[in-house]
Amino acid sequence: MTDPLLKIENLRIELKLRSGPIPVIDDLSLELNAGETLSFVGESGCGKSMTALAIMGLLPEKVGSIGGGRILFQGNDMARMNPAELRAIRGNEISMIFQEPMTSLNPVYTVGEQIAEVLRRHKGMGQADAWKRATELMDAVRIPNAKARVGDYPHQMSGGQRQRVMIAIALACAPKILIADEPTTALDVTVQAQIFDLLRDLGRDTGTATILITHDMGAVAEMADRMVVMYAGRKAEEGPVEPVISHPRHPYTKGLISCVPHLLAELTEERPDLTEVPGIVPSLGSFGADACLFASRCYMADAQCRNARPPEVAFGPQTSACWKADIV
Amino acid sequence: MTATLLNVENLSVRFPVKRRWGQSTWLYAVDDVSFEVKRGETLSIVGESGSGKTTAALGVARLVPNSAGHVVLGGEDFLKLEGEDLRRARAKIQMIFQDPYSSLNPRLRAEAIVREPMDSIGTAPVEDRPARVAELFEQVGLRPEQMKLFPHQFSGGQRQRIGIARALSTNPELIICDEAVSALDVAVQAQILNLLRRLQRDLGLTYLFISHDLGVVQHMSDHIAVMYMGKIVEYADRLSLFNDPKHPYTKALLSAVPSVDRARKVERMLIPGDPPDPLNPPKGCRFASRCPLVEDACRAAQPPLDPVGNDHRVACIKAS
Questions:
Q1: Is residue B61 part of a domain?
Q2: Furthest-apart CA pair in chain A: how many Å?
Q3: What is the CATH classification number for the domain harbouring A79?
Q4: What is this structure's pTM?
Q5: Model confidence over A276-313: pLDDT tens digits?
Q6: What residues does the ABC transporter domain cover (chain B) (predicted)?
Q7: Which candidate from A190, A219, A276 shows the least CB-CB separation from B252?
Q8: Which end of chain B is more exposed for a tag (fewer CB within 10 A), N or C?
Q9: Where are the beta strands (DSSP E) in A33-176?
Q10: Which chain B residue has the Cα nearest residue A159?
Q11: CA-based nearest distance A152→chain B, Å
Q12: What is the pLDDT of residues B26-39, one digit of tens each?
């Protein structure tokens, strides 16, 4: 068994509020192996983006900070690296694409310059070489007529093309890990299909491991090998996609899957009401409590759930942090 | 056979667009679109951004200028009304908007927001209005003590409930839901979708449902119209559209949706590129530039929306 590429151990991220530090990520551990696609799933505010930012060393200064735990990338703890060390990794060995391709590109530079910048910075390429490579990368992300488009500014491109440019920037240095934070949420579904195909093909070619952050179970089922379901800053469930979706071991996972109307192989007249997960995500004030934070919305919750944080229970490759995982 | 409530005939909505040298031209966001909505049913309009689905809804609600065609509701052409007649008729068509944050006035209390349409259109006698507000709060699942709160004191899902109560306040015949659940988290989305369906059953509401989410559309609709670049390319009842789509664009759209159902092994039909420039639409079929089945005849003339079965119409010469 080889060491995982990325290993997060008991990570705790604190948000400084007037009332004191709040653990928005609470004792999170996970592993990412080379070449695999891992998906983080959950509702807004569950901490999936926060985890990604922590890996990238991009937590908002003075607001969020790592309060404990380790983020081991190839054995080195990124949580303790200085800014220079982080800069050498960021964009080079670990890179990220964001949800909104318009705001994450610089509007006053051509897309070619923005791709070339990464290559010059990390690979020490000269201007001409980097530009040539930028054109090749634009071709690789399937932007038609790359030679002519490389001098375009972001506003001259469609949303899908901008996201392709973001992918070209992210993959320019053939990173070992690509973090994709809701990469297709702002895009139309046919464009999403194009981007997913592209990510899958490029990932296969370069052997890049991907962390896909999404709220769409369909996207997880289609793209990921393994998934981590997060709730209120904690890991609710983890495991290979197939068993988790077909037999979730956490009531929250179950709710997330059944509350969405999916397209089915064969549609029938029958249309039962959607399963509701009542209520909303708990407020920050209750984060860090020694209890199951999902208890207030859970149909199975009892006194034990409200008074003690459930440990992770393993079911083969699947784990679930639920007191009642065996009867979910 | 249920009766037709809304009949939209040859609706076009255009926007002026400034070109260089002070010239301007028209962008047809909705181009000669006809459909009908039956009483008590849900018609969904689906399409991607820029397809004109929202503009079509705004055209029906008469919330955009430069609309042409007929929007006939209860024997009256909504687009021909003016002044006091129009104001009174607005009670019949109400809207639920996408963003529950920007669609509620932050300076009004929840009860005032829900009451406002009754005040401005003048449905229900003044003395009955407080009771009606209380009734609406109950119908959408809000507590009476929440009537005095301001929008910022509600969660996104609760705000959307306020928006629904407001839309219901005038006893409208048609409610337009414009991406009404798109901004919500999935768990809250399920609550709102269930609420909308329950209200439809209890009150016999008719919905014009605008959405880009095919899963949601599948769950909510009786009939579906698929739009592409301002045109309806396919119209069908729910089962026909999802189980037997005819237009290549509909097929591509459906195949692009990722699903958790492992049995749903659709052949992924990738359509390359982006839609053509809407200011300069192609003469023939608007989907021709991306269509895998395209032939010369497609580029020559626009295909009409022809019936291909009971309750099923397709604008494609290759559909059969």
A1: yes
A2: 67
A3: 3.40.50.300
A4: 0.90
A5: 888 888 888 888 899 999 999 999 999 999 999 999 99
A6: 6-254
A7: A190
A8: N
A9: 37-41, 64-73, 76-77, 94-97
A10: B274
A11: 17
A12: 999 999 999 999 99
